[in-house]
Amino acid sequence: MGAANGAARIPSMKLSARNMLSGTVLSVTKGTTTAHVTVDVGGQTVTSAITNEAVEDLGLAAGQAVKVVIKSSDVMIGVD
Questions:
Q1: How far apart, in whole angstroms, are the C-alpha atoms of residue 10 and residue 3?
Q2: What would the mean pLDDT of 51-55 be, rounded to a whole number?
Q3: How far apart, in whole angstroms, are the C-alpha atoms of residue 43 and residue 59?
Q4: pTM passes above 0.85
């Protein structure tokens, strides 16, 4: 349950992920169950697909300052 559902907010959370980028939400586009959140990170665009419920719980909106947390076991590069 998220904060929107009455859960207590954690004032400060530490994460094991080391790839955390500060950015500003450019847009939030909701689909049937999943939203695409586009964030400007130092002039580069990062898009995350998260649930609509997560968007509501976090109160995400354009112009909001956020942290982009990237946790991946693989990063792949491809060429033609």
A1: 9
A2: 97
A3: 23
A4: no
Cβ(21)–Cβ(5) below 8 Å: no
What digits encode the pLDDT tens for the residues 17-40?
778 899 999 999 999 999 999 999
Structure tokens at 33: 């169950």
Q: Are the C-beta atoms of residues 69 and 17 closer than 8 Å to each other?
A: yes
Rg of the chain over Cα atoms, rounded to whole angstroms, equals: 14
Tokens for 4, please give them.
């929107």
Q: Vertex 27, ends 26 and 31: CA angle to 5°?
A: 160
- CA 23 → CA 5, 19, 66, distances in Å? 26, 13, 5
Question: What gap in Å lies between CA 6 and CA 9, rounded to an integer?
Answer: 9
Torsion-angle region of 42 (φ positive above 0: left; ψ -120 to 50: alpha; else: beta)? left
Helix (H, G, I), strand (E, B) or coil at 5: helix
